[in-house]
Amino acid sequence: MKGGYFTERPLVVVGATGRLSSELIFYALLQRFSRRLVLCGGSEERLQGLKDEIEESGFGEIEIHTTLSMEEAVSEGGYLLFAKSVQSSPTTREAMLLSNAPFAVECGRALSAVRDKVERVVCVSNPSDLMGLTLLVHSGLSPERVMSLSSLDTERFRRTLVRRLGVPPRVLSDVYTLGSHDGAMAPMLDRVRVNGTSLSEMGISSEEEVELVRAVRYGGISIYKQRGQTAYQSPAVHVLRMLMATDREPFELPTARYHHSRRYPHTFGSLLTKIDSQGCHHLPTKLTARDGAALEGAFASIERMRQQLIKGGYLPDPSEWECLLQREEELVEMI
Length: 335
Known about the structure:
alpha/beta; Rossmann fold; L-2-Hydroxyisocaproate Dehydrogenase, Chain A, domain 2; 6-stranded parallel β-sheet; 3-stranded antiparallel β-sheet; 10 helices
C-alpha cells in the first residue's frame, strides 16, 4: 500500500457510466485502490453526474478526471477497465461482436502509444473474450497484461454443484469452467472432486450431468429473470480482485487471455491461470478426452467469432500477429 492506497497509478474506466463500471468504481474506492480516477464515457452530463455522486460519498481527497476521449483517458496508463458498449445493447454475442468491436479497436490503438505505462487491462465489454483479443492485438501490449472476465462461470459451476449435490463448498476441488464465455463454455465435469471422489464415482447420471452443464451455461440468464436486471455486482467484485491481484494475494480462478498453441491457435479464452503482480499467466493442465472435447467446442465458438472480426476488418489476419504476441507452449495435455 502506497500512501494508504493499493497503487499510485490511476484507475482508468472506459465506459464509466455503465452499471457495472459504476459498481466497480465505488468498490475500488472502498478498497482504497487508487486516489486517482480517470472516467471516460460518451456523455459529459452522465460523467459529471457520476463525478458528483462520487464526491458526495465522502472518500476524501481523491482526483477525478472525466473525458470523452479514449486517447486522453489512457494517456497516463495505469490500471484499466474496458467496458465501453453501444448504448442500446444488442442481446446476442453475434450482434454485440460487431457493435462493440470499433470501441475495442479504438481503445487498443490509444493504448499502443502508452503501452509502457499500462499495468493491467480487464475487459468486460461483450463478447468479452473477443473484445479482449481485439484490444490486445491493436494495443501491442504483452498478453499477460490483457485479460477478460470469465471467473463467474467457474463460480457458477461451484454454486450449482453445492446446490444440486447438497454439499458445502469446502469439500469441492478442481471445479473449473473453461473456454468461451457463451453457450459453448465448458464445465470440466471429469476434473471435479467431492471429498476426493469424482462425479462418475458418485453415480451421477448422464442426464444429471447434462443438467449441470445447462445450469452453468445459462445461469446468468436465470439471474436476469429472477432479479429483473443483468447482474452487475458480482462481475464488479471479480474485476476488482483481478485488478488487485499480487504475488502475495493472487487471483487463481480461470481467466480469459490470449493463447496460441497447435491445439488452440491464435485464440483468447479461459484456461487455468494465475494473476499475480506481473499479470495473468497460464498454468498447465491435464484433461480427459471428454473434457477435452468440450473445450474444443468452446474454442471453436471463439474461433468462428474471431473470423467474423477478421472478415469485418476489425482484426488483421493472425499471420500478422506474430510480431506482437509471444508463442505459447502446449499447456493442455489429454489423458
